[in-house]
Design a protein that fits this description.
The chain is α/β, with parallel strands linked by helices. The protein has seven helices and eleven strands. Helices cover 33% and strands 19% of the residues. The longest helix has 25 residues. The relative contact order is 0.16.
Length: 247
Amino acid sequence: MTAIFKRILLKLSGEVLMGSQNYGIDTLVAEAVAQELKTVHELGVEIAIVVGGGNIFRGVSESAGNMDRAAADYIGMLATVMNAVVLQDALEKAGVFTRVMSAIDIPQLAEPFIRRRAVRHLEKKRVVIFAAGTGNPYFTTDSAAALRALEIEAEVIMKGTKVNGIYSADPMKVADAVRFETISFAEVLEKRLKVMDASAISLCMDNDLPIMVFNMRDSGNIARALCGDMSIGTLVTNENKVGQSAI
């Protein structure tokens, strides 16, 4: 297999590490994700990851109760650091050198985020995991993924989900929902499709950074998506690229 992108940013939700549990971290799932990433890494792809924290704490959900929004968001950022360290451990046990870089200063666990250092790690073929979002409340890890992808000059954001791409409606609820092979950023915003939050979509649109949404649950899908198999996902690009093969 030959990858069509050389540097990617993978957006992983915290729920991916939850497995079949209701909350928390399933280390067996982390190990499985690490093996998937190792396969992609062996294709010569430079991999950066932004991981969420929703399996532990969500600043905008019932778990936050009536907490101050900023305080709740900071707790959510700490949850992403926990997930990042778990994923780092799984990757290094699989033989993949990994660095965690945090937007919040936690020197015992992670390096501080410095753009040039992150790029250097990628050039040295280390997987880089970005934790603690942007380091600011009121911004989601979707926004962090778009920001970090642009900072490291990634060629694409890979967004792993539980379905094979973007649909006209929730395919779990609407039987005749239509899957898009390609769609424009403008359409995603207009139709309010739940791909990433609006600020992340706008940032990608303004900077012409494509997003590939694919099914993360099936083994081997990350590699297949990177090698151009669009049967497992949807490519989001600017208007003038829709309908064309952007890969």
